[in-house]
Structure formats: structure tokens, C-alpha cells
Amino acid sequence: MSIYVLGVSAFYHDSAAAIVKDGEIIAAAQEERFSRKKHDPRFPINAINYCLEEAYIEPDKLEAVVFYDNPILTFDRVFKTLLTAKSNQLEQWMRISGSMLGVKIHVERYIKKVLNCDVKVLFTEHHFSHAASAFYPSPFDESAIVTLDGVGEWATTTIGEGNGENISIHKEIHFPHSLGLLYSAFTYYCGFKVNSGEYKLMGLAPYGEPIYVDSIKKKLIDIRSDGSFRLNTEYFGYIEDNVMTNEKFSDFFGGKPRKPETEITTREMNLAASIQKVIEESVLKIAGHAKAITGKGNIVLAGGIALNCVANGKLLESGIFNKMWIQPAAGDAGGALGAALLASYDKFGIKRILREDGRDMQRGSYLGPNYSNNEVQSYLEKNEYPYHNIEDLHDRITIIAEAISNGKIVGYFSGRMEYGPRALGGRSILGDPRNPKTQSRMNLKIKYRESFRPFAPSVMYDKVNDYFDIEVESPYMMFVAPVRKRRRRKIAKNESSNLGNELYRIINQRRSDIPAVTHVDCSARIQTINPNDKKDYYELISKFEQLTGYGVLVNTSFNVRGEPIVCSPHDAYICFMRTEMDILVLENCILYKEDQTELDKDNSWKDEYELD
User: Which pLDDT score is estimated for 39?
Assistant: First the structure.
């Protein structure tokens, strides 16, 4: 009999579910994709139902449901932290007691009630879930393991190792000392939303100068040679109150936090550049210490900080380890997968089997729902949406590649949805990287987001060296690397935007022959495409290369600002119609904007979206 284990993460942010059969990942998805509430923290009933359907089992066939952390230890940390607070204790208790004494403390009972069966419920610890999510799907039989995030129960940073089916944690750093909370403090102070705006802070960093690095290391964080660190909690608000920074932090950096949606100034750019450098230094030292105490040649990473692909690129470049692998769903959503895998191998004795070709077990992270072409056509015909059914893959990708080469923006909905925050060619918006107007057009007229934010290139895995200075595959968009020097161009001193805002003066400069994916520092967050992971996407890029000489496409997630990545054909069609995308691909079906009837006459729908 096969052993099915369901992993669940919930009640903080990015709830998710994952199901594993005899150690093989069958399905995984975030709840937000179904509920359409970004970073949805609620119990992931929709994601669970999807996982059970994908595995073709009922809840009573599960060997166990594994929750990704330990609510009792979390309560212990919250309560003890509350007791040490010098003020606002009653206010803080009133704010947190409802959730801490409610469903979070009764997770086992809640799971059994929702699934309507007496299933075995197990608990792991937060950073063990992260560690398991990083090690078990990796292609390594043994490796060092580093996890870094805001906070689990008590741990914020761990160093451990994996060997076969076994994981052990050797060292931990505990709350309130946290690189994740440090980075989130600067995210908040620079006017972005915590737990979602960290990507913006990372994207903003290259526009600034790291002039605050010494100040940060002098007053806010003490980083030691072995990578251990301590924060000066006098400058942070998350212990005393429900904010990340306090007045002392503001005084130190010369003013109050930037208000969201206001102009981004040189101060925010320089702060972003500075904290990014501090994070990179910390990650390199922690990794160096992990190498020293484990002696392993490989490393795997997970936790929110592992989504900092600039720091990952620096670690790759350092050569501390021979090989790296990073869990694509490195944040809390990935904890669901880690919990299921940990129980499978550690509790139920499943033997771990690695792929003979040396590739990982994550299956390209295409672990979410897919929709057959019959389902797509039924949806389109029911709603009388005009479309063209192009069954032949070669014909279809030729049409799409030609459209992109002519400047069209394409919504690409193909195969299974991605697990994790990155769109990897399953739910993507695609554009021409050669066109210097692609970035601003996609940001302002399609994504409805800040125009300084960079876009990632999807590049054929066997052509990546033609464009970028990187020697490894990067299928999950987890590494930033430089654009090849021969592709860069010198910027004239007077070549800038006419806008007065100091940030936008440098956004639209053409820095290379692939300007739409070249960031201000001539770097790019790279996704390599291997036909073994996604044949149709590889062939699309290959056709684009035949037409243009460039084996690269602009790839951004299929959503608008404040909305989760699309899951269903309906989600995709609504997003297509409410943006300035030109073409929508739904499996074999191609839809042209000019053929469609307008959904509405105004843009009031935008007000529904959370501006994060």
C-alpha cells in the first residue's frame, strides 16, 4: 500500500498544502491561488482539496496530515516576548490572544473537523520544515542546510545537514535576532508592505549607494566572523508594538518612514542598497560557517531570505560550495511540502531515491492545477469568448513567437501552475527583451506596479552563457547574475528619462541589447528553461531565437499588482481583459484582444486590489 502524507502550512501568511506519495511530490499549491486573496493565511481547504484530487484519494486514505510548525512553541515565544515588553502589554495581548488561543492552538481538532475523518495529525518545527523542503527535493545525497527567515517558533536561522533520509540541525539563532525581521524593518521603513514588499526593496537596491552599511553594522546588527549575529532591539518596534521600526530608528536615519505610494527618494534607494549589502555579508558568513562545521561540498537553502536571489548569486559566485539548490517555494508556503516530506522519510521510513540524471525532484515546481484543452474550450464557448484553436504545437508557438517579436505582450497559460512565488512559464506574461519600451509598458500598463521593478529573462538552458555570466542552470529564478559584458552598451551622460523624479531619470536607459531584462546594475534574475521540465516553453523560446537571433524572453508572473498569480482560465481571461495585454494563450486556444468585447467601461476594478 502506498503511503500518502499531506503537509499543511497556515495561519500566518501564504497558507499552502502539499501531498507526497511514497516520497514523491504529487501536488502542491498556495491557498491564495484559489481564494484570490493575496498571501491568504487561512486554512488552505481549497489547496487541500486540489491535492487530494490530484492524488485521487479521500482524506481517510491519508497516513497523516503534518502541520508545518509547533503552535505550542510559537505560543511560548509570543507569551514570553510579551512579558519582556516594557509597554503596551495589555494592548498586545488583546491583539494576539484571539488567534493564539483560538484555531492556532487547536490545529489538530480543526484539521480533523475540516477533513471530516479521524486522520493522524503530526507536528514538526518551522525550520525543520524549511530544511526538509530544501534538502529532500534537492539532487544531493548529502549537503549542508541553511534556513533563514523572520521567525519560526523561536529559531530565525539554522545550520544543519542532510544525509540520505536524515536531517539534523546543529546551530540556531533565536528571536528577536533575525535577518528576516531586519530586512522587513527596512522594507517597512522604505514604504513597502512587510511579507510582500521585500522583492521591491531588493529591486530598488541597485539604484542606490550602500552608504549606510557601516552605520547599520555599528548600531543595528553585530555580525560575527562565524555568521552569528545580534540585533540591537532598541531600534525596532516588533517587540513592543505591531510595527517594524520605532522613533529611534527614524531618528537614526533622519526622518519618518516613507509613506506608501509617495515618491521614492535617494534616501530609500541608499537604504535599500545598504541593507542588501548587509544581508549578503551575513549570508556569506553563515554559509562559510556551515561549510566549516559540516564539511559538505553542497548546500541547500530555504526560508524567506533564500528568496533574495541577489544574495544567492553572491553565494554562488563565492565558490564556498561546489553546488547549490534552493527550494523554489522558500517561504512559508514551502513549509507544507517540507512537513510532508519530513514525515514521509523520518516517520514512515520511506527510502529516498535520487534521479539518475542528477536533476532535482521538484519537477520544475509545476505542481499546481492544470486544465485540459476541452475544459478551456468549454469555458470559452460557454461565455462566447472568440478564440482560435491551434492544436499543432509547432503552429501555435510560431504564432506566439512572431507576435512577441512584433512587440505584442502575451499572457501564457500552459500546463500546471507553479508552486512558489515565481511564474516559470506555466502562468506567465511574456514580452520581447530587445525592446527598450517593454519594461515600462509591462510595469505601468499591464502589471500596474512601480516602473523601477525589473523583469526576469527566461533563457534556453543551453544558451544561457551567450547572455549571462553564470555557469549553472537556474530553473527556479533563484540567482541573479551579470549580463555578459559584450552585450552591454555605454550609457551617455544625458541619456535619461525626462521625468523630474530622481529615480525615473535612470530607469529607461538602454543598458544592453536585451534592455527589458537588464537591471540598472547590468544584472538579471535568470530562469533557464530545460525541455525536460517544460517542452512547450523551451520550444517557444527556441522559435523566438529562430526569428530574432535571441533565445530569451521577458517573463513576469501572470497577475496584476495586489493579485495572486492566476490559477484558472477564468482568472487568466479576467486579467487579460483588464490589462493592456495583446494576446492570451489558454492551452491550445489563442485569443486576440481586438476580437473580445470589453468587460467594463472604467477601471474601478483596480480599487479592489490591495496596493502592497
Answer: 95
Co-location of 290 and 386 in the same domain: no
296 contacts 144 by C-beta, under 8 angstroms: yes
Give pTM, 2 decimals: 0.93
Alpha carbon distance 171, 87 (integer Å): 32
356 and 497, same domain (yes or no):
no
Where do the DSSP E strands lie in 473-550?
479-482, 523-529
- Whether 610 has a pLDDT exceeding 50, the answer reads no
Do residues 354 and 417 both lie within one domain? Answer: no
For 293, the grid coordinates are 562545521
Which residues partner with 101 through β-bridges? Answer: none
- Which residue type occupies 294? T
Q: Which of 5-9, 296-300, 491-495, 600-604 has the lowest mean pLDDT?
A: 600-604
Half-sphere exposure of 467 (CA within 13 A, CB side): 30
366 located within any domain: no
**Residue 418 contacts residue 557 (beta carbons within 8 Å):** no
Give the tens place of pLDDT for each residue, 445-488. 888 777 778 899 999 999 999 999 999 999 999 999 999 999 99
Residue 368 lies in a domain: no
Tell me, what CATH number does 465's domain have? 3.90.870.20
> Which set of grid coordinates corresponds to residue 178?
533575525
Is a pLDDT exceeding 70 seen at residue 204?
yes
Amino acid at 371: Y
- Alpha-helix runs per DSSP H in 116-264: 126-135, 179-189, 198-204, 213-219, 247-252
Which residues form the domain of 194?
138-326
Does residue 260 share a domain with residue 168? yes
**Do 120 and 145 belong together in one domain?**
no
18, 22, 23, 28 alpha-carbon torsion, rounded to 10° = -20
What is the structure's pLDDT at 195?
A: 87
Q: State the CATH number of the domain containing residue 36.
A: 3.30.420.40
3-state helix, strand, coil in the chain (%, to 5): 40, 20, 40
Q: Are residues 142 and 126 in the same domain?
A: no
In a shared domain, residues 154 and 299: yes
Which 8-state DSSP code applies to residue 144? E
Same domain membership, residue 198 and residue 291: yes
Our count of domains for the chain comes to 3
The answer to whether the beta carbons of residues 210 and 150 sit under 8 Å apart is: no
Note the pLDDT of residue 492.
Answer: 60
Residues 93-119: tens digit of each pLDDT: 666 655 665 677 789 999 999 999 999
